[in-house]
Amino acid sequence: MESKQRILVTSALPYANGPIHLGHLAGAYLPADIFVRYHRLKGSDVIYICGSDEHGVPIMLRARAEGVSPQDIVDRYHELNKKSFAAFGMSFDFYGRTSSPVHHRTSQDFFRRLNEKNIFIVKKEKQLYDPEAKIFLADRFVRGTCPKCGYEDAYGDQCEKCGSSLSPADLIDPRSAITNAEPVMKETVHWYLPLARFQKKLEKWINEHQDWKPNVLGQIKSWFADGLKDRAVTRDLPWGVSIPEDIAREHGIDASGKVLYVWFDAPIGYISATIEWAEEKGDPDLWKAYWQDQSTRLIHFIGKDNIVFHCIIFPAMLMEHGDYVLPENVPANEFLNLEGNKLSTSRNYAVWLDDYLQKFEPDSLRYVLAGNLPETRDADFSWKDFQARHNNELADILGNFVNRTVTFAHKYFSGKVPPLGELDEMDRQLVEKIKTYPSRLGELIEKYQFKNYIREFMDLARFANKYFNDKEPWKTRKENPQACATTINLCLQTAKTLSIVAEPVLPFTARRIWKMLNVENSQTWDDATKLTLDDGAEIQPAEILFTKIEDDVIQKEIERLQQAGAPNEQKAVEKKETEMERISFDDFKKVELRVATILEAKKVEKADKLLQLQIDLGEEKRQIVAGIAQHYSPEELVGKRIIVVANLEPAKIRGVESNGMLLAASDSEGNLTLLTVDNEIANGSKIS
RNA sequence: GGCGGCGUAGCUCAGUCGGCUAGAGCAGUGGAAUCAUAAUCCACGUGUCCGGGGUUCGAGUCCCUGCGCCGCUACCA
């Protein structure tokens, strides 16, 4: 029909420190797989590349916490995710990983090339260095006392206790998280990608792509509006792709302990995985056709959190390198919520793919998810909806149509395709649908309108049921056997068409229908438009495609989720309590707690959380600032009796003097309530 | 507080460059049919398109503003 297109499709490399959940699938994986499967049926020259992103600090920290090596962590999740993706029907041509030697080499070559072209800015700067471990310390690897709250185990970038963001130099008594040695300031060198310099070029390029999704263009514009900032592409870390030694030497630097920053090497993973794919195919240069021939359509499927990397940073890298194609489109999706709430992996509030696959069929989730993708805005997944769509649409409309047709053919036409006779008006209408639907559905997929594709696909199945009903073959069987034969013939043809156009979203079901109809596994999209089943051809007995999902099964999943947040948090709290540091009574005596009454309260300008309070401490009146504006209004506070730390050293918060601190209790949900006293007692009373 | 996004039927969502009485599926009510997984098919919607202004011959769609929700960000619980 049309000339063969060469298409390279990628899905965001999942980070190998956890399993895959629904949000991932809806954002980057399922749409890409539908797109790719469609193009394969269309006969396009398409390959689909993905893999594990295995570098970066979180993986290191996790390895340390578990007392294993980073490689152990990534091995675990690489295997797990690869397996569950396969079981879900993700049809990657290659699923690589960024810890592979090919990837290390490819990223180093990429870096070397940009270095040769003098793209980078090399900056000398001073950073903390661990003299024992002989490595520079990333912010996260410096621990010390928080200058603001005095917490002794604050991270170099943030204090977990008081939440304030820090830089490692702020810490009092800093120490290395790895060896506990005292870090020293030492000069180091980092390579920066001068994005600011590329902004004009990038804007021009983006302007040529006004057909991209509005949500994607909107995000990009806001980055441009802020002005692009130069970004360091190297890091002093022991886990990652090392800086090529020759380049380090060029700058008189020791390359050891210096790696490419993970955001730099991860997208190059698409290229290295393609190279490995070509090697596996026994044609090592084959990858070049996909990455270096300008006629290739490169399409990145990602979630919205990844837009800046795929629409600005990676394209800038590719442009400056010079040998590669730039993405034709980046159809990023928004986020998927769960039962009306945000997903939270740390609270285990998510539906994990490997867990799902132990209980349900992959096609059910593929269908339900694809029908409710967050294409233009955040969407919501609920188990009740999942059950309804599975039962009402997959089982009742699609499954039942195939079943009633095949069963009928067996019962009254001895399991053979009955002959096609003369067509009446209704028959011709159905044939017309068979002819036109595939190209309409294909267009929708081409335009990344997957939800519309799903809806229209099911409309065709609905029409098929209506046709069956209106033709009443159970009556014509006696009155007009020829008409009956024609009806069943066309219903079988329609089942075949449905199976082909469903393949991108329901690959397993499609194959089961092909088996039932005794047709080859190598159907093409164009076959869907034709009546390819021959008169008299044998078909297999009917098989139930989708079994109904019962209420109690769904109820269990809902309950599991409802409990997921809470118990987990309790565990976290208990853990913290057992790890709690003990203090002496003398330490406690240092804190002077007193009862006070709030006299006045007003909001602090330009701060969401802060209230400025005047309090009566008995012998004196004072002003304090409290971060409780999101939980208490100024009016309701006046007259309240509170507990304050009276001897806290004064501080200025957003320009407002704070002379003391009130006490409040908060839970892990972020609920907050003030501490108060049980009975009347004078202001200024001491608490012990 | 700053920047960005969102607010359409009971529920989940469509509404392309502003243009005919604002749509789909589900749920609900009534009916037809009995080949089929009690499945199917048909009929039925007085929705302040969050509120208020404005631009326009015409606005769910564009502009301003208020409210509510979400994200990023700043701010000692």
Please characterize this protein's 3D structure.
- By secondary structure, the protein is of the alpha+beta class.
- The chain folds into 4 domains: 6-107 and 263-333, HUPs (Rossmann fold), CATH 3.40.50.620; 118-260, Methionyl-trna Synthetase, domain 2 (Beta Complex), CATH 2.170.220; 362-529, Orthogonal Bundle (Isoleucyl-tRNA Synthetase, Domain 1), CATH 1.10.730.10; 585-687, Nucleic acid-binding proteins (OB fold (Dihydrolipoamide Acetyltransferase, E2P), Beta Barrel).
- Helix content is 44%, strand content 17%.
- The chain contains 21 helices and 26 strands.
- Strands 17, 18, 19, 20, 23 and 26 form a 6-stranded antiparallel sheet that branches.
- Strand 13, helix 10 (307-321) and strand 14 form a beta-alpha-beta unit.
- The longest helix is centred in the middle third of the chain and has 31 residues, at 383-413.
- It starts with 5 loop residues before the first strand and ends with a strand.
- The chain binds one RNA strand of 77 nucleotides through helix 6, helix 13, helix 15, helix 16 and strand 23.
